[in-house]
Input
Amino acid sequence: MKKDNIDAIVIHCSATPEGKDVRAADIDKIHRARGFKMIGYHYVIDLDGNIEQGRPLTMNGAHCEKPGFSGRPYNSHSIGICYIGGVAKDGKTPKDTRTDAQKLALQALVANLTMQYPIREIIGHRDASPDLNGDGKISKWEWMKACPSFEVKAEFPLAICESKSSEK
Ligand SMILES: [Zn+2]
Output
């Protein structure tokens, strides 16, 4: 991506069980096996709060191909951040498993990125689900998946995307 094109952040979870210590290198392997050039996310936040670099920001992401209010796929204009976890120990029930260290790291990373880039939208992956009933918001029943298992817009409010979606 060109620096000027970056205007959104999409937050994901790795959908790995609570407490399981997965790292960017593990995701990189899985994504390459799926045919990606390399890990699809730009950043990975480990259980201990360590922030790992995924693919460079100069590359488009491979984490969310859905278009948002801009009409362009998020992969072409957003930074993809993935925290490790997101499901309960059973490996399937969506759960906000973030450790305190991960929450702090995520806040710091988002704050840092919003200072460096003209970010207009911060969403969770599930917020990019299609608005099936056209009411301008993505409701729970419309989620294609639960990722990232917490309400990103409540934690990282950026009013602009709401105002944009009500304009149309
Ligand atoms: Zn996701």
Notes: The first helix runs from residue 24 to 33. The chain has one domain: 3-167. Strands lie at 8-13, 16-17, 43-45, 51-53, 78-83, 86-87, 121-124. Residues 12, 125, 147 surround zinc ion (CB under 6 Å).
